[in-house]
Amino acid sequence: MEFRSRVAYCGLLMMVLVAFACAPTAATKPDPASSGTGSASAKTSDTARSGDGQGGGTKESDATSSSLKALQEGKPPITPASSPLKDAFFDFDRYDLSGDARAVLRANADWLKNNPSARVEIEGHCDERGTNEYNLALGAKRAQAARDYLVSLGIAPDRLSTTSYGEEIPVCQGHSEDCWRQNRRARFVIVERRATS
Amino acid sequence: MKFLLLVLSLSFGFHLDLALAQFKGEIVGSGGQKFPIAVSPLRNTGSATADAGRFSTGIADSIVHDLELSGWFRVIDRSSYIESPQQSGITLGTFDLKDWSTLGAEGLVKGGFSVQGDEIVVELRLFDVYQGKERIAKRYTGGVGQFRRIAHKFVDEIINQFTGIPGVFNTQIAYVSNSGGRFKEIYYSHLDGSEKRQVTDNRTINLSPSWGVNGRTILYSSFQDRAQTLYLRDLPSGKDLRFNPPGAGRFLGGKLSPDGQMVVATYESGGNSNLYLLDRSGKVLRRLTEEPGIEVSPAWSPDGKQIVYVSDRSGSPQVFVLDVQSGKSRRVTYNGSYNTSPEWSPKGDRIVYTGRVGSKFAIFTIPVEGGDPRKLTSEAFDSEDPTWSPDGRFIAFSSNRAGKYHLYVMQASGENQRRLTGSGGDDTKPSWSPRLVD
Fold first, then answer.
1. Do A137 and B296 touch (CB under 8 A)?
2. How many angstroms separate the CA of residue A124 from the nearest CA in chain B?
3. Cβ contacts of B207 on chain A, cutoff 8 Å
4. Is B115 in the same domain as B145?
5. Residue B295 in contact with residue B289, Cβ under 8 Å?
6. Domain containing B24 — which CATH number?
7. Are the C-beta atoms of residues A64 and A33 closer than 8 Å to each other?
8. Contacts (Cβ under 8 Å, ≥6 apart) of B280
9. Is the pLDDT of residue A72 over 60?
């Protein structure tokens, strides 16, 4: 009879938690993706030049390619340390948001509020365990949970799209929990950002 | 006791009527004896050709591969054979049966071939060594590049002789592999790895291949167009039909119905994935589930009236069965907290699926009405993505027991687990084709 908390219920719960958990970013756990593989962030300057077709006026310094594009270009699907939008992480086979994940999303929401012309695609990812199709659906749930929370924080829904790569484009290639937790993530790709004066 | 064993071993031998009565569909039960058989390299009955060795041993090798894969035969090692295949005859009376009975062979496969241009003519025979009788004699003509297929067809005949149901070796396995690098592309080949073909080459992620009824189409999902959707590949023409999603969401996977006229697909929108009934052009006919959670991995019952799938509505992924007509679902699995990727046996009686055991994944089967699951693979490693052979007597799956993911085949009981020829990369998501027409 255990029922997983659904996104709809999460929303209510979050409002409560946000109210008293306001020491946000300090409580955020270090981003394993960027700390573990920081060297790759130096390469992000290629991203804007190679032309996403949707990259618009994205600044080279904080550009994050979609994971699919990174795969096609032979780059690791890493969120650069310089990116203003950080990854949110999940537990195995879960798509409800932990306190850490909510703290990351609040910081992302703050940035989105300060950059009102930016549009973002949220990618849901999973670790390699379990079957591909289920993980594609689970990744979609994770992206949607992140999106719903951002909307609850006041970000316009039409600025946020979602996609899922399931377990197909891991940021960490190993077969241990240390890798798996880095791969269970919602990742934010700025798809449009007109220069703000 | 000894006498009883002897009677049994004879009865699944060449006393065909008896064999059929006792072993219909299953030659040997667990603990049963494997049938000892010898497979001679083929004699070149045509003019001398540089490729003669390749055909002579290649066809024999493929026959041996299939017989061993079936789990029902013990193939006597070729190095012990007495007669010279290029000197002895291939019809009764033109070779000495004692050369084979001495080795303990009860069955014997002999044959000859001749190459004419791009064509090869192959004659294959099955003999009962003890009774001195010929049981099968077949002549095949084909392109020299398809000589292994001839071997598979003949083994299907041998298995028909023993069980009353043809074998499943003239079939193909479609699968996903990253052998070409970091991308996941779809391939298919015979079970022995021969006649391998690459289906997709779009340098993205391609997943979940499944065969159409005639073995001429493969339905798969792909990120080739950035957003994931389904594609129906017509193999003879190489053309893809793209399924346009009905809204802003994505098709995550799907399967063609047993009559080939419909597709059941997973459509994800707003984070919710549900099952949809489509026609074979991808147009939505009907929505099948209305759930807020995850509904994925649908597969048809053999009569096309029910669909087995995965739902997390109870809090964890479990196997459910949906009645297409009424739209009603019932839960099948209750053991374990993670049961996925089900497929319905072509015999109709059981469902195979992947279940989590501790921190590993194993293959299980369970009666379609529910009940006690039967674990078929060890949880010392991961085994996933099971797919039935067209006769329901075998299951192919992927496993990382040798490091990378490779494809394996086992009997539906879990016995005789054997690795198929690998691509060098991770090979996953096998789908077993129907029997090939030619």
1. yes
2. 10
3. 132-133, 136, 168
4. yes
5. yes
6. 3.40.50.10070
7. no
8. B232, B256, B260, B261, B262, B263
9. yes
The label of the residue with tokens 């289906």 reads B199
Within A25-150, strands assigned E span 88-89, 119-125
Same domain? For B105 and B142 the reply is yes
CATH code, B337? 2.120.10.30
> Are B222 and B329 contained in the same domain?
yes
Q: Are B180 and B132 part of one and the same domain?
A: no
Q: Is the dihedral of CA B19, B23, B27, B28 positive or negative?
A: negative
The phi, psi pair for A167, rounded to 5°, reads -95, 10
Q: Is residue B85 part of a domain?
A: yes
Inter-chain residue contact B385 with A136, CB threshold 8 Å: no
B134 plus B47 within the same structural domain: yes
Taking the domains of chain A in order of start, what are their residue ranges? 7-192
pLDDT digits (tens, 9 = 90+) for B267-323: 999 999 999 999 999 999 999 999 999 999 999 999 999 999 999 999 999 999 999
The parent domain of residue B177 ranges over 173-432
Name which of B226, B293, B341 is nearest A68 (Cβ-Cβ).
B226
Q: Judging by beta carbons within 10 Å of its beta carbon (0-12, 13-18, 19+), is residue B37 exposed, middle or buried?
A: buried
Smallest CA–CA distance, residue A144 to chain B, in Å, is 5
Round to whole Å and give the CA distance between A132 and B223: 14
Q: What is the 3-state secondary structure (H, E, C) of chain B?
A: CHHHHHHHHHHCCCCHHHHHHHHCCCCCCCCCCCEEEEECCCEECCCCCCCHHHHHHHHHHHHHHHHHHHCCEEECCHHHCCCCCCCCCCCCCCCCCHHHHCCCCCEEEEEEEEEECCEEEEEEEEEECCCCEEEEEEEEEEEHHHHHHHHHHHHHHHHHHHHCCCCCCCCCEEEEECCCCCCEEEEEECCCCCCCEECCCCCCEEEEEEECCCCCEEEEEECCCCCCEEEEEECCCCEEEECCCCCCCEEEEEEECCCCCEEEEEEEECCEEEEEEEECCCCEEEECCCCCCEEEEEEECCCCCEEEEEECCCCCCEEEEEECCCCCEEECCCCCCCEEEEEECCCCCEEEEEEEECCEEEEEEEECCCCCCEECCCCCCCEEEEEECCCCCEEEEEEEEECEEEEEEEECCCCCCEECCCCCCCEEEEEECCCCCC
Could you identify the residue written with the tokens 């006649």?
B195
Interface confidence: ipTM more than 0.95: no
Cβ contact A71–B354 (<8 Å): no
pLDDT at A6 over 80: no
Shared domain check, B200 and B159: no
pLDDT above 90 as % of chain A: 59
CATH ID of A7-192, from 2.40.33.20, 3.40.50.2300, 3.30.1330.60, 2.40.50.140: 3.30.1330.60
